[in-house]
């Protein structure tokens, strides 16, 4: 096994292991924190796929933004207001059915796709310029729509937060 | 240095381990020096003398402190979340140390010469925030939790001015790779981005006010990111005992401290790299080269560390609302104007 393969299995193990903790942990704060390692593992896998920009963006947005927000929410509810949030197992049968269907669909895609294996690591320097160029030419409209939606969400959040003061 | 090592030991995992060691050695030595400097500078500013007994002018005091911290009992509160409590200091240090991976120390040495250096450092520093939140929550202590919350809110708010200020430098230099950013500014003090970069005189003069403002804002936001006075609300002693690290003792506390000092150098060195030419000499070809490069970048970094110490012992602490006001209503709008103006000038 060469170095890259070992690193791949390492990151895969980190992702799967911490993903399992997220799902199976009884303590919701532990679940939230172990998401950090899951996101980190996925970022590592992106790097191995030569998607460096995607990997760093993954760290910035998921770890720096979403995860911190999530932990904030969990901490504020469970530790400050003293509400115990417990994770438990409910509705086993429907869940089993849906998860089984999803797994079957994913496996079908996995087995039926003809994967293109590149013989050598292609000489990709960095993906940032290409992504930037595509976002401002071919995919300009989706990019702008996404930014407008984010702006609307921001304004909405600010409005809801402000309303409390007047009452 | 990477190529040189490769020729000795070939392509193996050992190469990456060796490449990762110098920043760690640097952090440890630098922390010793800075702890001593901080105490001495603060004392002289307040007309005291600080350490005097352990060695000449108390030079060995940091070493004695480390020996003390190593021997201290490692206490964990009974009601704490033990796993997270143990993990938190290491997570905080990992986030900081990961930032050092993309920090150039000379034209010949950088931990990992990745093409997204600037972006990577901004992104990876968010691990520190998660570590602080973990420490605050796991301690199961009101003050710790409040400290952690404040810290997270503060670091996230000030990440925006930091990223925008760095964006201005990236727009001018046209690269996210820190080595390329520095190479762009090579050739003397007037080629530095803070003075408008290596452009024709007119363009330089137009750029100069905006780059200078961006540089100042980057420095201010940097102080806020490392949670130091006047932005030290997360560990405001007068209100929160010691903030998120209240419950920590012994080596765990030392690791928090080490991470804070390492972070100080990290933000200083980034400011020095993107705005002040990093390892390039201010005199053009005079005193330049890989070894002089180490000297210059460490000198520039230390200058800003000294400035941070100076500011810490000069200014009082801000209130929480003032802190948020500064970030969102002062620094960020200023930078929006700067980004727009720099973009316009570069296009014209």
Overview of this structure, please?
- The complex is a heterodimer of chains A (167) and B (348).
- With 167 residues, chain A is mainly α.
- Chain A is built from six helices and no strands.
- In chain A, helix 1 (3-24) runs antiparallel to helix 2 (28-48) and helix 2 packs antiparallel against helix 3 (52-80).
- Chain A is globular, with a radius of gyration of 21 Å.
- Chain B is mainly alpha-helical and 348 residues long.
- Chain B has one domain (77-347).
- In chain B, helix 4 packs antiparallel against helix 5 (117-124).
- Chain B is globular.
- The model of chain B has no long low-confidence stretch (mean pLDDT 82).
- The interface between A and B is medium-sized, with 26 and 28 residues.
How much of the residues of chain A is beta strand, in percent? under 5%
Average pLDDT for all residues of chain A:
82
Structural class of chain A: mainly alpha
- Structural class estimated from helices and strands of chain B: mainly alpha
In short:
The complex is a heterodimer of chains A (167) and B (348). Chain A is an all-alpha fold and 167 residues long.
Please render the helix and strand layout as text.
The complex is a heterodimer of chains A (167) and B (348).
Chain A: H1 3-24, H2 28-48, H3 52-80, H4 92-112, H5 128-136, H6 140-166
Chain B: H1 2-9, H2 13-45, H3 61-71, H4 82-100, H5 117-124, H6 126-138, H7 142-173, H8 178-184, H9 201-225, H10 237-240, H11 250-275, H12 290-312, H13 320-347
Helix pairs in contact in B: 2-12, 3-11, 4-5, 4-6, 4-11, 6-7, 7-9, 7-13, 9-11, 9-13, 11-12
